[in-house]
Amino acid sequence: MLFVVSTIIALDHRSCTPGFTSAWSRKSVRSAVPIARAARGGGGLLPKLYVYDHCPFCTRARMIFGLKGIRHNLSWLANDDIQTPTGLVGKKIAPILEMPGETPMAESLDIVRRIDEDPTWGSALLQPSTGREDLKAWMKGVSGVMRLLARPRYPKGYFPEFAFQRAREAFVRNHPIADPETGVIPGKEEWLQIGPDVWNKWYAQHLENTPALLEQLNPALAELENLIHHGDSVSPGGVGYDDIAFFDRLRGTTLVKGVQLGPKATAYLKSMSHQTDIPLFWALAM
Ligand SMILES: N[C@@H](CCC(=O)N[C@@H](CS)C(=O)NCC(=O)O)C(=O)O
């Protein structure tokens, strides 16, 4: 795998703010094209996957490559890089798949399907989604607390997409977090008005509130012992779309120190990390 963090030197801070995005994007598509072409050439004949490491949707897309043992070119986008994804699919988004000779595509589940069903790499491997309501309810139930635990940690983590200060700043600017006093999440416009001093204060306050957040998360994690079918797949019948939509979330918990995972959840994480060749965050946990 190649380890590439795309650097967009020409981009200044102002051009990363959403207020400037549309004007910049219109103007930039032309200048972004050579970069997209260069990226295509750099990928050779291998599929090229553009991702952020922390991103659950990117984990989904990476999973199918690991599960099928498909050699590919993994390209880490910097989190403030608007130019590369816009040049490829017209907006700032990850993951993006670029197959040689094809129009690049976004949407994690479309990417998973595109790769799994491509006969180049044998028969489709993934079991269909079971539509399990218990799993969906569990993921919905933990999404709020997971967001509060994960967001303040991401830009502090040793992730390739956050290699640059401006990339770490872009993440905070683009990801509103709840007012610790009221619990209300500001809209994007309001968040921009609030400004970096308050953003950073709120991010820090949620980080300090970790013990209280873990009191909510840990009992929910204990429930997984009854939800996970087996270490190798969350539902009976083998690895499938249930795992694609579940492992990506559970992987995020491994970034949080103090998370208590039962034996089944631990075995599942280890097995899925091994099967998909996607490392967990235990070594980075904070
Ligand atoms: N529906 C898309 C969602 C992808 C998505 O929301 N990706 C996030 C990163 S986790 C993103 O690129 N957000 C825009 C940004 O970070 O600026 C998918 O499943 O691929």
Written account of the structure:
- The chain has 286 residues and is mainly α.
- The protein folds into 2 domains: 4-121, 3-Layer(aba) Sandwich (Glutaredoxin), CATH 3.40.30.10; 133-284, Glutathione S-transferase Yfyf (Class Pi), Chain A, domain 2, CATH 1.20.1050.10.
- Helix content is 53%, strand content 5%.
- It has 12 helices and 4 strands.
- The chain has helices at 13-16, 18-43, 56-67, 83-89, 108-116, 133-150, 165-174, 188-194, 196-208, 210-227, 241-253, 263-276; strands at 4-5, 48-51, 73-76, 96-98.
- A 4-stranded mixed β-sheet has the order 1-3-2-4, sandwiched between helices.
- Helix 2 packs across helix 4 (83-89), helix 3 crosses helix 11 and helix 6 runs parallel beside helix 11 (241-253).
- The longest helix is centred in the first third of the chain and has 26 residues, at 18-43.
- It is globular, with a radius of gyration of 19 Å.
- The two termini are 27 Å apart.
- 36% of the residues are buried.
- Residues 1-43 have low confidence and may be disordered.
- Bound molecules: glutathione.
| Count of DSSP strands | 4
Give the helix proportion (percent range): 40-55%
Assembly classification: single chain
User: What name does the CATH topology of the largest domain carry?
Assistant: Glutathione S-transferase Yfyf (Class Pi), Chain A, domain 2
Bound molecules: glutathione
Main sheet properties: 4 strands, mixed
- CATH architecture assignment name of the largest domain: Up-down Bundle
Poorly predicted sequence stretches spanning 5 or more consecutive residues: 1-43
Shape category: globular
Radius of gyration: 19 Å
Mean pLDDT: 88
N- and C-termini, Cα separation: 27 Å
SSE-based structural type = mainly alpha
Given the structure, what is the number of helices?
A: 12
Top-tier CATH class of the largest domain: Mainly Alpha
Strand order in space, largest sheet: 1-3-2-4
Question: What's the number of domains?
Answer: 2
Sequence of secondary-structure elements: EHHEHEHEHHHHHHHH
How much of the polypeptide forms β-strand, as a percent range? under 5%
